[in-house]
Amino acid sequence: MAAHRAPLTNHHADESACPPDHRHTSTGKPLHPNCPGRSYSQAICTCGTWEFKNSGKGYVDECRKRHLATHPTPAKAPKVLRDLLRLDLP
Ligand SMILES: [Zn+2]
Ligand SMILES: [Zn+2]
Question: 2 alpha carbon to ligand 1 midpoint, in Å?
Fold first, then answer.
């Protein structure tokens, strides 16, 4: 099973994408001439049952990570479990 991803994207107030080359000052003011300003950030998980939208980019990132942590990732199985499985080998 492949691990799920929930990429974070930024959007303008009209819901169009605010791409990474639309840079902003630390206070959120747009530096790009065509950028009306970032209105919100959004993350949609590839599992299809979760999406989150908020004006706080850091908050979306936090919720995104918290949601992704609920998906078990086979590669991250605890070492002790892998050792146990290995004991079953001849
Ligand atoms: Zn923009
Ligand atoms: Zn998910």
Answer: 32
Rounded CA-CA distance 83/90 in Å is 14
Domain boundaries, the chain: 8-87
Ligand nearest to the CA of 37: 1
- Tell me, yes or no, if the pTM score tops 0.85: no
Residue type, 62: E
Q: Do 73 and 4 contact (CB within 8 A), yes or no? A: no
The predicted-structure confidence for 9-49, as pLDDT tens digits, reads as follows 999 999 999 999 999 898 878 999 999 999 999 999 999 99
